[in-house]
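in:
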């Protein structure tokens, strides 16, 4: 009997849904991960894992080479479970437990932490990014054990904090010695195999103005109005970069390296001309580029817009680089892991998995760039639903991902 056929009866759709519902109900916005991590630790222990739970304090890691940065600096729990074999390669299955904020909860049709199930969809913050992937990992490990399959190699499950803020959890796990021979990070890829992702760096632009009473606004200088040509310059920079910086893994993708403004704050009172505007956002870094290269391009675009404005020429805006830093991952499109996952996915779904690049950053670059561990992104869910109102994941896709991951574990680690 093929390994897939031995595993399939042990992929329990009802249990996967129950696990995902329980995990989504545990709010784990970055900085608030402990309750969900305690649930993960308990579940992994019940599966028979040798579980390591420790509190990561970002302050203890700041001096380490390669520290990825973090805005949220509170100590929180990291969880790693090892399922050792007698000898053979170690496959790491990684997922981040933290989510972004739900934003305005009044805009949600389904409450962000209710885990409502409607048909094939389970709704909730983190359902697709990436608790669906974590539950698929749990289902895969559980199926291998329930099928009585004895692995030659080892499996390591990592549930890490702080990915949305730079990756301090994965960095801490690797620094602690939790490494392997290859990694699958179960980000939402719609079951595509992604051997490389773009980089990301976070900026803060502060634009000065001059306050005045709103009734004599012409006597002041609106920082909001002075920001508009800067924003236009950033849009032009985005267009130019996405036209000229190309890579085969991103063929057909309109914006592989997007530049987005996420927050804008200006003014202190409705009747006062705003004397200061602060805008924060992210800019993508292409494969083959460095974060430093892209930062210089953005700084030059802001400076160019300021030089064209009489007030800003004498009162220049400032650009700061804040929060986490995601370098582009080192691509490995020809690694055996890519071909193996394609083959296993075809066996399960009837169609080889698509191979492409990701326009977002992830923890993968910590494995590939810093620790030399090859790997891919692969998991259930659609990245277009991540960070989105009424986020949801397909339960059928979580089930398929669990079976593919279980079969991949058996093929990579070897069966005794």
């Amino acid at each position: 009997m093929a390994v897939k056929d031995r595993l399939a009866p042990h992929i329990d759709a009802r249990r996967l849904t129950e696990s995902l519902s329980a995990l989504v109900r545990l709010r784990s916005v970055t900085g608030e991960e402990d309750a969900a991590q305690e649930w993960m630790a308990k579940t992994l222990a019940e599966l028979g894992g040798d579980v390591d739970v420790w509190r990561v304090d970002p302050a203890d890691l700041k001096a380490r080479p390669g520290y990825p940065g973090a805005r949220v600096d509170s100590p929180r729990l990291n969880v790693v479970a090892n399922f050792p074999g007698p000898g053979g390669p170690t496959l790491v299955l990684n997922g981040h437990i933290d989510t972004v904020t739900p934003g305005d909860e009044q805009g949600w049709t389904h409450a962000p932490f209710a885990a409502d199930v409607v048909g094939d969809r389970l709704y909730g913050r983190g359902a697709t990014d990436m608790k669906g992937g974590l539950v698929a990992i749990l289902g895969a490990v559980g199926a291998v054990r329930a099928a009585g399959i004895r692995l030659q190699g080892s499996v390591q499950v990592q549930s890490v904090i702080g990915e949305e803020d730079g990756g301090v959890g994965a960095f801490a796990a690797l620094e602690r010695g939790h490494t392997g021979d290859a990694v699958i990070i179960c980000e939402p890829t719609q079951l595509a195999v992604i051997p490389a992702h773009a980089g990301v760096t976070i900026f803060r632009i502060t634009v000065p103005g001059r306050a005045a009473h709103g009734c004599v606004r012409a006597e002041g200088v609106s920082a909001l109005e002075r920001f508009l040509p800067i924003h236009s310059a950033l849009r032009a920079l985005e267009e130019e970069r996405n036209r000229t910086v190309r890579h085969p893994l991103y063929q057909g993708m309109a914006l592989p390296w997007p530049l987005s403004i996420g927050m804008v704050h200006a003014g202190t009172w409705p009747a006062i001309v705003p004397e200061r505007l602060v805008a924060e956002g992210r800019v993508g870094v292409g494969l083959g580029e460095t974060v430093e290269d892209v930062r210089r391009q953005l700084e030059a675009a802001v400076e160019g817009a300021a030089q064209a404005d009489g007030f800003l020429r004498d009162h220049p805006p400032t650009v700061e680089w804040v929060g986490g830093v995601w370098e582009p991952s080192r691509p490995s499109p020809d690694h055996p892991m890519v071909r193996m996952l394609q083959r296993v996915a075809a066996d399960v779904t009837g169609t080889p998995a698509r191979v492409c690049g990701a326009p977002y950053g992830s923890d993968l670059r910590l494995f590939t760039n810093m620790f030399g561990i090859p790997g891919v992104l692969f998991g259930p869910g659609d990245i277009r639903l991540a960070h989105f109102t009424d986020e949801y994941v397909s339960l059928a896709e979580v089930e398929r991902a669990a079976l593919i991951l279980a079969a991949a574990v058996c093929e990579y680690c070897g069966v005794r």
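note: The chain has two domains: 3-196+329-413, 199-326.
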